[in-house]
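User: Just a sanity check before I run the rest of the batch. Below are the structure tokens for the first item. I only need the designed sequence back.
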């Protein structure tokens, strides 16, 4: 990893890991602990954990220079944006509707930045 290419890969790795962390929102699970919840809420928690693991897999793949790592990251960021929209419109189990929660706005910006960066990388002639 050298020069601009190395910086772009590093930025991609950071953005996708942060996307996974903000989507899973570890402080919610670590600080608030487990509360009795519905099966749908438990399924959502598992889905968010899978999203975090997938983000870590994408980060390793990007670091190794694979094209599919960038593509997996786009899928992860897109799913995170879709979950945010679903949470705010129809609602998701155990999550409040709050369009302007600062951490979610930051997450959306990071996800959009990642998608733009990844598309740019995928359209480069040498990628």
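Assistant: Here's the designed sequence for the first item:
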């Amino acid at each position: 990893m050298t020069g601009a290419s190395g910086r772009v890969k590093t930025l991609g790795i950071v953005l996708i890991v942060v996307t996974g962390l903000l989507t899973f929102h570890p402080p919610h699970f670590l600080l608030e602990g487990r509360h009795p919840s519905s099966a749908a809420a438990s399924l959502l928690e598992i889905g968010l954990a899978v999203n975090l693991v997938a983000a870590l897999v994408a980060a390793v793949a990007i670091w190794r220079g694979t094209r599919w790592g960038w593509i997996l990251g786009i899928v992860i960021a897109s799913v995170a944006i879709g979950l945010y929209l679903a949470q705010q419109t129809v609602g998701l189990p155990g999550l409040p509707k709050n369009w302007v929660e600062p951490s979610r706005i930051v997450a959306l910006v990071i996800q959009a930045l990642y998608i733009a960066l990844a598309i740019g990388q995928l359209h480069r002639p040498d990628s």
